[in-house]
Amino acid sequence: MQINLNPLALLAQALTAGEAKQRTLVGRGLAWQVREREVINGLADVEFSVFSQFGDDGIIQWLIHRLSGLSETFVEFGVGDYRESNTRFLLLNDNWRGLVMDSSDRNVAVIKRDEISWRHDLQSACTFVTVENINQLMLDHGFEGEIGLLHIDIDGNDYWVWRGLTAVRPAIAIMEYNSVFGAERAITIPYDPNFSRARINNLYFGASLPAMCDLATSKGYDFVGSNSAGNNAYFVRSDLQHGLKVLTAAEGYVTSKFAESRDSKGRLTYLRGERRLASLKGLPVVNTRTNAEEEL
After folding, report:
1. How far is it, in rounded angstroms, from Cα 108 to Cα 163?
2. Predicted confidence (pLDDT) per residue in 116-137, tens digit
3. pLDDT(258) > 70
């Protein structure tokens, strides 16, 4: 779940039903355009945003039309109030069925009041997702086995939750990674079921891209690229014979340019570049290849 101060995101929170329909209509035209792209240099070539924070709406549209026979179902964790998310356009444009979850009662109440909760087959749940509850949450909401798309963006235990998730087997998995951790080390924060990103300057969370790629390989997925913002990695199941170029973590890594660090009072401090990683020096991480605890 991103902390988003983008004016466009704030505007999106005030969307009327009419404005949302206008966005969807424009997005539908963009979707038809990207579907025609048979060959691309990278996922950034097909990016566009209707409701996604960055260009992920376009990437998702391109991928689902490259892959045949997908289950038209999705699960997304950490959606806020769902006005800005990576599956809302998939729900509205392609009429997929889905489950979205957030840890805020207020956010989930907004989702349940939104007309999309009755116009579409969308379930929403208020829960703090952990390794211990993730599989039961899936089963309790009727999601088991093959699904079309999974997106995990919980700003914390993303690696551990995906590692522990066995109830569903998505064709496409979108995993948030922490580009501040770099492109070399396979590391993640130590598992803490009560982890809060806000506890330490807003930059200490999640896992590196190499850690996510290793985990994906162990689960039978190929890494096919990152969005241009440098926060979401895209994986496609290897057995789908997708024909997409498979990348290494080094080839597909994108450095984020977010200046979202905060002080102890929650005020933005705007750390940029290498200063972001330097601010985390000495904090513990787990080497996911050796399972040993190390320091940043």
Report:
1. 26
2. 999 999 999 999 999 999 999 9
3. yes
Pairing outcome for strands 168-176 and 145-152: parallel
**Distance separating alpha carbons of residues 107 and 112, to the nearest angstrom:** 9
Tell me the domain boundaries of the chain. 7-295
First to last CA, the chain: 23
Beta bridge partners of 152: 77, 175
Contact call for residues 242 and 67 (beta carbons, < 8 A): yes
Report the pLDDT averaged over residues 14-26.
Answer: 78
Model confidence band, residue 16 (pLDDT cutoffs 50, 70, 90):
low
Q: How far, in Å, CA of 106 to CA of 242, rounded?
A: 39
Q: Tell me the residue type at 256.
A: S
In degrees and rounded to multiples of 5, residue 83 shows phi and psi of -70, -30
Q: Which CATH number fits domain 7-295: 3.20.20.70, 3.40.50.150, 1.25.10.10, 3.40.50.11540?
A: 3.40.50.150
Q: Give tens-digit pLDDT for 145-175.
A: 999 999 999 999 999 999 999 999 999 999 9
